[in-house]
Design a protein that fits this description.
With 292 residues, the chain is mostly helical. The protein has one domain (2-216). 73% of the residues lie in helices and 1% in strands. The chain is built from 11 helices and 2 strands, in the order ααααββααααααα. Strands 1-2 form a two-stranded antiparallel ribbon. The longest helix is centred in the N-terminal third of the chain and has 31 residues, at 2-32. InterPro entries: ABC_transp_permease (IPR001851), BCAA_transport_permease (IPR052157). Keywords: Amino-acid transport, Cell membrane, Membrane, Transmembrane, Transmembrane helix, Transport. The chain crosses the membrane at residues 6-28, 60-79, 91-113, 133-157, 183-209, 215-232, 239-259, 265-286.
Length: 292
């Protein structure tokens, strides 16, 4: 029972990171209806920026919030300079642009900081909490940061004019334009927020997986799995899906001998295929209705 509880708590911790990635993926998908394959590399690059700021002597939380701000600005700039001109381009053009961004951020990080593994500090410490080693302080910190971030986003989208405008622009851009919403800038803000959320995910997971240019590849796959399971049209569903993927892959890797720790990534891929086969819109995604 203790092992089961430990794996569930560890799954909640990593699931919180997957939930952040899934939420970032869904935010961009709702804005431009395409999956951002470079989301993980953008988060990785932001994490390197935070590491560099800490190396220069900036306190951890100062570097944390400064990196979030820089990531937000970078996300807006990328949308305005790269994807706004591609607004009416074919789907293949967007895919090529995403792959190009993936390669650019990965190579640029390796060029600037090289490909050696670096340790990333945690502000929460590494000691165990609640006795018996059920959950570490960093894992508990990851859960807390994720929940605070999700609550802030919920309040932003529910209670602010900008948040409501972003929701309207994502749901029905034509009607939003008619009531004066600047849909283009709402999309850009969505990109900025997605980049900032990805930066939080990168900085929280870096002390666990260590910092290197390829650190976010598997995290991105888990994020995609959470987004698909929850529904690409449902931010709340993506969050639930991310937590669910974290718990499922932890329990499967521990209690299913065939899977083991080495094949846990296969669980995420199997979840994607299974959900797409039986409920393509995800567990909480909106049903697509076509008028004929």
């Amino acid at each position: 029972m203790e092992l089961f509880l430990h794996q569930v708590l560890a799954g909640l911790a990593t699931g919180g990171i997957y939930a952040c990635m899934a939420l970032a993926i869904v935010m961009i998908y709702q804005a431009i209806h395409h999956l951002n394959f470079a989301q993980g590399e953008m988060a990785m690059f932001s994490t390197f920026v935070a590491w560099q700021l800490i190396e220069w002597g900036v306190p951890y939380w100062g570097a944390f919030f400064l990196t979030i701000g820089l990531s937000f600005v970078a996300g807006v700039v990328i949308e305005r300079t790269v994807f706004k001109p591609l607004q009416r381009a074919p789907v293949l053009a967007h895919i090529v642009a995403f792959i190009a961004l993936f390669a650019i951020f990965n190579s640029l990080a390796g060029f600037i900081w090289d490909f050696t593994i670096k340790s990333f500090p945690t502000p929460f410490g590494q000691q165990s909490l609640f006795g018996g080693g059920l959950i570490g302080a960093h894992d508990a910190g990851m859960i807390a940061v994720t929940l605070v971030l999700l609550v802030l986003l919920f309040l932003f989208f529910r209670n602010t004019r900008v948040g409501l405008a972003m929701r309207a622009a994502a749901t029905n851009p034509e009607s939003a334009r008619l009531v004066g919403v600047r849909v283009g800038w709402m999309i850009a803000l969505g990109w900025g927020m997605a980049a900032a959320i990805g930066a939080v995910a990168g900085m929280m997971i870096a002390p666990v997986v260590f910092l290197e240019p390829n650190m976010m590849l598997s995290i991105l796959i888990y994020g995609f799995a959470g987004a698909v399971v929850g529904g690409l049209t449902s931010p709340g569903g993506a969050v639930i899906g991310g937590f669910a993927v974290g718990i499922i892959e932890n329990l499967a890797g521990t209690f299913i001998p065939v899977v083991g720790p080495e094949l846990k990534l296969t669980i995420a891929l199997a979840l994607i295929v299974t959900v797409l086969m039986f409920k393509p819109t995800g567990l909480f995604g909106a049903r697509v209705v076509t008028r004929v």
